[in-house]
Write a structure and sequence with these properties.
The complex is a heterodimer of chains A (52) and B (762). Chain A is mostly helical and 52 residues long. Helix content of chain A is 67%, strand content 0%. Chain A is built from 2 helices and no strands. The relative contact order of chain A is 0.07. Chain B is of the alpha+beta class and 762 residues long. Chain B folds into 5 domains: 103 residues, Alpha-Beta Plaits; 134 residues; 87 residues, Calcium-transporting ATPase, cytoplasmic transduction domain A (Distorted Sandwich), CATH 2.70.150.10; 134 residues, HAD superfamily/HAD-like (Rossmann fold, 3-Layer(aba) Sandwich), CATH 3.40.50; 106 residues, Calcium-transporting ATPase, cytoplasmic domain N (3-Layer(aba) Sandwich), CATH 3.40.1110. Chain B has 26 helices and 29 strands. In chain B, helix 7 runs antiparallel to helix 12 and helix 12 packs antiparallel against helix 24. The longest helix of chain B has 35 residues. Chain B is elongated, with a radius of gyration of 32 Å. At the A-B interface, helix 1 and helix 2 of A face helix 3, strand 3, helix 5 and helix 6 of B.
């Protein structure tokens, strides 16, 4: 019973991290172009240099 | 990866509409700091190589700071600097660069911000509901596996706290929709959903407070989660189709060149043109507003306005209507109406008056809900009263009633329709057919008569050389050499059908309303209408001849004649034959001359052709068919078809249609072939069969589960298992449509004959 006091917050926290990651991916526009992202991943050259 | 290596010159030649720097500046919007953002739609991109080609071509321009292709919506967002140093840049180079890479590019007004926001809200709601459902389910599993009373209570409390915000946040879509329906005295699928969700939450909370054994928090939240997935898929599908349609070239001009009293010219948006203003229209441009020609002569292509297939000559004093294209000469017009009150406005008024199938149609899910929810609610009430009076335990009675509501909550019913429609729309999308909303598919499955427009729908709206007299010899290459200097559709057709090298001419004069004239080696060549070629000496051609005729003369003597007919859309004959074989009636309603319409209809095997119809008469035809118990599927493209498209039970337009035609139609097909018509009907029929199967499955499941709930045996565990299985069954049944798409049998669209012969005779 005592361990539940630790385990439940941990479980909720891990779920919360998942939710936060989803919210972040949504906000940063990762669902805007699903087909394009699939192609960009296998492009030879760096179409999308970091910081652009 | 040469799949997308489109011939660049071909694209350049194809895009007859060149954008001026002013028009582009009008379409782009400033970001501040001298930067502008321009959104272009590029309908031809379809792979990774296309992305890199376009992005590289654009970033190579010195003034472009960022270019990003969105493959899903087929768009390029380009950010460019207004000036380099002190010199203003020409944004038209951006479009030229895309065209130079081999892609068509259209200006695109970004309207999608609204749609994107709704999509993100829905996705967020799915995320929140998913988070809540997963965590509550985790806690519920430990309760079901036999937690002791104290732990159970604690888990119930945690579940209640997770469920409450999730319910309010994710459930608001259903609550709002249900409230709207109730306010208007109707019911829809969202009413039983909202009721079950709120009631089950309230009862579970009450149970938790009284240390009860059963709480339904998991069922409540996972129900929302499943239904939101269906709703989000539905929304994404519609957005995708809408984005594809919005990305098409806009046909109506955005602005026009205003001729100021001092003779200078200024480019203004069409909305700013006042009555009495003079507007310059160059050859190859579309007329921006209704008006009267002040000076200049030209031939106008009215195919998109009235359906008339041959160009009409205009000169000073002739009225012109917006949307028609000046082919051969430049015109100065005096605007007689404002842009908002021109022909287009009349058409829109007609469209609103004609609003047919769409407005009256009730979605199949809503019709089902109208039957379903009273039954379910009465059932729950009956079990509440029954258990209360017979058992005497009102708390137990309440629990049973809620169990009935949860078990019967139309989770499967709520998924039964959207999932099938999403799969069907995806199948059509892959075949180049965009469906604007799910109800269009439902209506399409009900039709029995197909009405076609002629110009631009059954035909390509452009002429083709059918006969030359004499068939051989140098005449054709001379004619092709002359024709190369003109934009007139007949000239273009002549040029393309010449197999020999055209004879080059240095100087060709185009005489609007007449034809082309050139002098070479002392001989005067004329190409045009017979009266023009022979200086009015020749006999008039037979009145109403189905063919357009062009003569070539050398020093006034006719040396060759060319006959043209409209090019039929590829696959048109096969499509009509397939429709007849499947038992559909067909009819042609055209704005072109009766003789021409009749000829095309005969060639295609369409039994009934009505010509010379005004937009109003087209609507009347549609309504007459509707009122004689036929359901009409209208396919048309022109401005004049728009009201009929709105009046028909369901409608479709080709991608080349007028802006208003595309807006009025429920479906838009992107490929050239008319096979899209039977294919769309086949998929719609198949999906309607699947929807009915899904309803049967969902109701069958209810018939099994309801007695369990009424007898008071439905624990939360049973509810959760039953709900998930029924959803999975319904979704897997819907996915069977994909297998169907891979092999469409010829008889797939066969319908029980009956009304068909009637329709043909009507």
């Amino acid at each position: 019973m005592n361990m539940l006091i630790y385990l439940i917050p941990i479980a909720l926290f891990m779920g919360g991290i998942g939710l936060a990651a989803f919210l972040w991916s949504l906000k940063s526009g990762q669902y805007d172009d699903l087909q394009g992202a699939a192609w960009r991943a296998i492009a030879d050259d760096d179409l999308d240099p970091p910081g652009s | 990866m040469t799949c997308c290596a489109i011939d660049a010159e071909g694209v350049m030649a194809m895009s007859t509409t060149a954008f001026s720097a002013e028009e582009i500046a009008l379409a782009s919007h400033p970001l501040g700091g001298g930067l502008h953002q321009l959104d272009l739609s590029v309908p031809d991109v379809h792979c990774g190589a296309c992305i890199s080609t376009i992005e590289r071509a654009l970033t190579a321009l010195p003034f472009v700071s960022k270019a990003r292709v969105n493959l899903t919506s087929r768009r390029v967002t380009c950010i460019y600097a207004e000036k380099i140093g002190a010199q203003a840049v020409n944004p038209a180079e951006i479009i030229a660069a895309v065209a130079g890479a081999g892609y068509r590019a259209h200006l695109y007004a970004p309207l999608a911000a609204e749609g994107d926001r709704t999509r993100n809200q829905l996705l967020l709601a799915v995320g929140v509901a998913g988070f809540a459902a997963a965590n509550i389910m985790l806690l519920s599993v430990s309760v079901w596996s036999g937690a002791d009373a104290a732990t159970r209570d604690m888990f119930h409390w945690i579940s209640a706290m997770i469920a409450a915000p999730a319910l309010i946040y994710s459930g608001r879509f259903f609550f709002q929709s249900a409230w709207n329906a109730l306010k208007h005295g109707r019911t829809n699928m969202d009413v039983p959903i909202s009721l079950a969700v709120t009631l089950s939450y309230a009862v579970s909370l009450w149970e938790t407070m009284h240390h009860g054994e059963h709480a339904w928090f998991d069922a409540t939240v996972s129900l929302l989660f499943f239904l939101l997935i269906g709703r989000t898929l539905d929304h994404v599908m519609r957005e995708k189709a809408r984005a594809a349609i919005n990305g098409l070239a806009r046909i109506a001009p955005r602005g026009a060149l205003l001729v100021l009293p001092d003779g200078s010219r200024r480019y203004v948006p069409t909305e700013d043109i006042a009555i009495g203003d003079e507007v310059a229209v160059a050859a190859g441009e579309r007329v921006p507003v209704d008006g009267v020609v002040v000076s200049g002569e030209s031939d106008l292509d009215l195919s998109i306005v009235t359906g008339e297939s041959s160009p009409v000559p205009v000169r000073a004093g002739s009225p012109v209507s917006s949307g028609s294209m000046s082919l051969t000469g430049s015109l100065i017009l005096r605007a007689s109406k404002r842009a908002g009150e021109s022909l287009l406005a009349e058409i829109i008024a007609l469209m609103e008056a004609a609003e047919g199938g769409r407005a009256r149609y009730r979605r199949i899910a809503d019709r089902a809900a109208a039957l379903y929810s009273p039954v379910v609610h009465l059932l729950a009430l009956a079990s509440f009263l029954g258990w209360g009076f017979l058992g005497g335990d009102w708390k137990q009675a309440m629990l049973v009633a809620v169990a009935v509501l949860i078990i019967t909550c139309p989770c499967a019913l709520g998924l039964a329709v959207p999932v099938v429609q999403v799969v069907a729309a995806g199948e059509l999308f892959r075949n180049g057919i965009m469906v604007k909303d799910g109800s269009a598919l439902e209506r399409l499955a009900e039709i029995d008569t197909v009405a076609f427009d002629k110009t631009g729908t059954l035909t390509m709206g452009g002429p083709r050389l059918v006969k030359a007299e004499p068939p051989e010899g140098s005449a054709l290459s001379i004619a092709a050499g002359l024709a190369a200097h003109s934009r007139h559709p007949l000239s273009q057709a002549l040029m393309h059908s010449a197999r020999t090298t055209p004879v080059p001419f240095d100087r060709v004069i185009e005489i609007p309303g007449g034809g082309l004239e050139a002098v070479s080696c002392g001989t005067l060549y004329r190409l045009g209408s017979e009266s023009f070629a022979c200086r009015g000496l020749a006999t008039q051609p037979a009145e109403g001849s189905p063919f357009s005729e062009v003569g070539l003369s050398q020093d006034g003597v006719v040396s060759a004649r060319f006959f043209f007919d409209d090019t039929l859309r590829p696959g048109a004959r096969e499509a009509v034959a397939t429709l007849h074989a499947a038992g559909f009636g067909t009819v042609m309603i055209s704005g072109d001359r009766q003789r021409v319409a009749g000829n095309t209809a005969r060639e295609l095997g369409i039994p009934r052709a009505l010509g010379a119809l005004t937009p109003k008469q087209k609507v009347d035809q549609c309504q007459a068919l509707n009122s004689s118990n036929h359901r009409v599927f209208m396919i048309g493209d022109g401005i004049n078809d728009a009201p009929a498209l709105a009046a028909a039970h369901v409608s479709m337009a080709p991608a080349t249609a007028s802006d208003i035609g595309r807006q009025a139609a429920d479906l838009v097909f992107f490929n050239e072939r008319l096979d899209a018509v039977p294919l769309a009907i086949a998929v719609a029929r198949r999906s309607s069969a699947l929807i009915r199967q899904n309803f049967a499955l969902a109701i069958g499941y209810n018939i099994l589960a309801v007695p369990i709930a009424i007898s008071g045996l439905a624990t939360p565990l049973i509810a959760a298992v039953a709900m998930s299985t029924s959803s999975i069954i319904v979704v897997s049944n819907a996915l069977r449509l994909n297998a169907f798409g891979k092999s469409i049998p010829a008889g797939a669209i066969a319908r029980p004959a009956g009304k068909a012969s009637e329709a043909q005779a009507a």
